[in-house]
Write a structure and sequence with these properties.
2 domains; globular; Aspartate Aminotransferase, domain 2; Aspartate Aminotransferase, domain 1; alpha/beta; 7-stranded mixed beta sheet
Length: 392
């Protein structure tokens, strides 16, 4: 059986994580793995989530199945968080999923069933797991221009040119906010231009909203999705609670489809349930149940939002400090780091330089120069910047 298999291509993030764990140097720095870290280098449980889990432990009477679409209450609250209260609820259907990855895979299978000949256009670069998640559904992928490595922003004119020749019926994967791996986002004027282009060309938006609240704020980060929902006849959104609720290992996410009519939404929603039933049968509940308690309790929701705001503000402070140090040490302009959003930034490094940083300085980042800004703190920002400047 297994003698016919060939070795799997190593995942760069998992490989670097393992190497960091084995490194015995006391001054090693990890800015590779995509989790929020506090000043002490830990990834704490959000206080509101911890309190919600205590309530859940005291109140929950059963752990029986919820059904393939998950908890209706959780789904409704997540729909409000992502689409807002003014959304056309009759045209939206939601499935609770095992994290944002589960949402992406579920929606990819739905697209493959509905439009098997569609091409999914993905940004260059994009999150390392997008390609395997989408390609595993049998979809054809094609890259479109996105990141300007020289200036640290978006190659917007090139992006528009690439998408303007996409075929009607094709799918466009968009990062809703806090682009991973670059941190370079569209502004709202650019989002409106892309929305109009997709509407005119008959393209289908698939938005990955993995970091809502870590860019400019919960409402602000949902703005692009809500604008698209106001003009597009159809779209899909994959939302994750991993980062903004810090429930990484509990795998909490939601897949949304916006259809052209309530009847079409019913058909697509039923198909989501069928696909989910064939992949994971029923979604996990614990983390989603805690998120539901936070979102429906006014006090817990306010506390969660305050803690999320603090995480975002700390990342912005780290960005400012890093940009200042890099500019001072290299005599180059790194102000683009402060204009980017979310946890990630792509620094101008070659694969060889990234390897030297790991081998010689104990600094762990991805080969393409992606760093998790939240992996920095008051003690290691200056050493990181010094190592970077001396390795370029």
């Amino acid at each position: 059986m297994f003698e016919t298999l060939t070795p799997a291509k190593p995942d760069p993030i998992l490989t670097i994580m393992a190497a960091f764990r084995e490194d015995k140097r006391a001054d090693k720095i990890d800015v590779s793995v995509g989790v929020y870290k506090d000043e002490a280098g830990g990834t704490p449980i959000v206080a509101a989530v911890r309190e919600a889990e205590l309530l859940l432990h005291a109140q929950q009477q059963t752990k029986t199945y919820l059904g393939p679409l998950g908890d209706v209450g959780f789904n409704d609250l997540m729909r409000g968080l992502v689409f807002g209260q003014q959304a056309d609820k009759a045209r939206i259907r939601t499935a609770q999923t095992p994290g944002g990855c589960g949402a992406l895979r579920l929606l990819a299978d739905l697209v493959a069933a509905a439009r098997p000949d569609a091409t999914v256009h993905i940004p260059d670069p994009t999150w390392v797991n997008h390609e395997p998640l989408l390609a595993s559904s049998g979809l054809k992928l094609k890259s479109y221009s996105y990141f300007d490595r020289a200036g640290g922003g978006v190659r917007f004119d090139a992006m528009v040119r690439d998408l303007a020749v996409a075929k009607p019926g094709d799918v466009v994967l968009l990062h809703g906010c806090c682009h991973n791996p670059t941190g370079a986002d569209l502004d709202m004027a650019q989002w409106k231009t892309i929305g109009t282009l997709m509407l005119d060309r008959g393209l289908f938006p698939l938005v990955d909203l993995a970091y809502q609240g870590l860019g400019f704020g919960l409402e602000e980060d949902a703005g692009p999705v809500r604008h698209l929902a106001s003009i597009m006849p159809e779209m899909a959104v994959a939302a994750s609670c991993s980062k903004n609720f810090a429930v990484y290992r509990d795998r909490v996410g939601a897949a949304f489809i916006l259809a052209s009519s309530a009847a079409a939404a019913d058909v697509a929603g039923a198909k989501l349930a069928t696909i989910g039933r064939g992949m994971w049968s029923m979604p996990p509940d614990h983390g989603a149940a805690a998120v539901k308690i936070v979102l429906e309790d006014e006090g817990l929701r306010a506390n969660w939002k305050a803690e999320l705001d603090g995480m975002r503000e700390r990342i912005q402070m780290l960005r400012a400090n890093l940009a200042s140090e890099l500019t001072r040490l290299t005599n180059s302009d790194f102000s683009f780091v402060t204009r980017q959003t979310g946890m990630f930034s792509c620094l101008p490094l070659t694969d060889g330089q990234a390897q030297r940083l790991r081998d010689e300085r104990g600094v762990y980042l991805l080969p393409d120069g992606r760093i998790n800004v939240a992996g920095l703190n008051a003690q290691n920002t200056a050493p990181f910047a010094k190592a970077f400047a001396e390795t370029r």
